User: What shape does this take?
Amino acid sequence: MKKSLQHIIFGAIILVVGLAACNKDTVYVADPISSSSNAYIKFLHLSPSLATITGQADNVTLLNLDLKSNTYSKITGTPLAYERYFPTTTNAYATIPTGLQTIKFSLAAVNQKDSLELFLKKVQIDAGKYYSFIITDSIKSESLSKAMFLQDDLLTLGASQIGMRLVHAIWNDTAAKNIDIFSRRNNATIFSIRSAGSATTFIPLNYFTTSDTLIVRRAGTTFALATFNGATFTPGRNYTLVYKGNGAVTTSTAKPRSLLIYGH
Assistant: This one.
């Protein structure tokens, strides 16, 4: 009996040593991956014809469907009028849950009961990503296939660079004609042959301590459609340049074709 007990104790010791050796040999090639439950989004109202299209006041509230309660909660605060964006803080985004999200565009919404639905848009939101959702006159499209939901793939930049992307958000631009963007400081066309409803990726550009003048030209010509004077930037930051408004007018009171710049 004594001998058997010794064998049992010896076997237990061997087992413990063996397990310890196995644990010692376990090597983690990377830290465990943790994913955020949120992503980040910015909304811009750049639909010059919204009031005409809807027959309602020019304001938009955005809501997101809560799948647990099956109700909509507001994303934006004050309703957005033309040329307004949310959040308004420089370089800020609102948080939004990940996965397939349903965003509701409404007019004059305070809560779900009194909101007049414009349309619903389902979008795929990935954890940790940044997005821009630009409301344009594409809301006239029943399919909304051309709604401008953009992933903001921002560049890592040096102290002598900025990043820039072009969004062509004018839906009544001359049919089958494109635009270029000319930078006076770079003395070059920085974006070329862009059609209505398109968006480029971010590209690195030279940073200048003095302001730049950006000119929208009809593609392949020097004919100026719109000009942004005094454009200033911060080195190392990314920006989106948006060609917006009513492409058929230049009068300042009629939401004319023009350029808008927002930072990331």
About this structure: The two ends are 78 Å apart (CA to CA). Residues 97 and 186 are 40 Å apart (CA to CA). The helical segments are 2-25, 50-54. Confidence is low (pLDDT under 50) at residues 1-35.
